[in-house]
Amino acid sequence: MKETVTILSAGNSLGVYVPAKLLQLQLRDQGVPADIFMLEHMYDQQTRENIPRYRKAFHDSFTVAKMGYKMAKDSRNSLDENNVATLLHEWKLKGRRRFLALTGFWIPILQRYQEIMASVDLDIRLIRLDASDTPSFSVYGEACDQFKNVWLYPVGENRIIQTIAVSQEEPVPFQEREKRYLIHGGGWGIGTYKDKITELTDSDIALNIIAYYNEDIAYESHKFAFHRYFMMDPSWSPWQRNAVDEFDFPPFAEVSQGEASVFESGGSYPKVFELIRHSLGIISKPGGATLLDSLASATPLIFLEPFGDHERSNAQLWESLGLGISYDAWKEQDYAVNVLEDIHRNLCNAKHKAGNLMSDIT
């Protein structure tokens, strides 16, 4: 039997959680056992209980979110020692040796496991989903160098080496797509996307809008624009296991006035990806998972203000490779569709040239 791969994830960002789930499913498809562990299960109770409050604050104010970004700190003070000790004991008993960490906040725990397993050759890889350091890695500085760093977009090289495939399906031809744009704020609904909805509505641009809370939905103010609203199940938490003790993709549904929403998850990729595949563009901050979606679907990224330096690097990379355009530049061109069709063709070419991270792992 092939050796189990331990995937270390977190729910503080769906940009970490969703790629982790994709990797788990793809490894299993190749006959490689793979388990996901969530950082939130290592936190003390108070830290875990504060997460929804921080999430709402970051959603309500991009200024607050950016302050939080600058205050990112070592996770050690938030960890519950009993939870960590129990996990390390379990890993040792099972002889876990292969690890993929998608967030740097697992580094203190991995360092302790290295000490415990000093006589064992561990294969620990830090998977870098952005074009430069994210806070979860940068707070540990040179400690990251103790492990193998696997970059999708190596810093300073201005290229895509490899990607995490979201789907095996070919991109939908641009002319066959719905005349709509998907607009969102990443996993937590962060950024300036809400500020753009009114001006896009005034320009008769139809949107698929991702809502995060019920108050995000404004049927009346946009009733003539034929926008559609979609939502993740507000009761869902990424660190809660389902009935068969597995983690799910976010339960997702269209939200219509006066109708009950039926949230669905399951499948080999998130439900929102179907919307992305059939959209003319993604209007969003340039997060790491959004780059994966853009490349996998060949859907142009129309990027809003970045959330931190790593997203600024993402935007610069995508723009320099002709795979995206800033919202302001697109607006200056009167929201031209032909500009996006050129970007779509570039994305199709880039998608077929990019390596698949799974090849490196397996």
TrEMBL record:
Which protein is depicted? UDP-glucuronosyltransferase
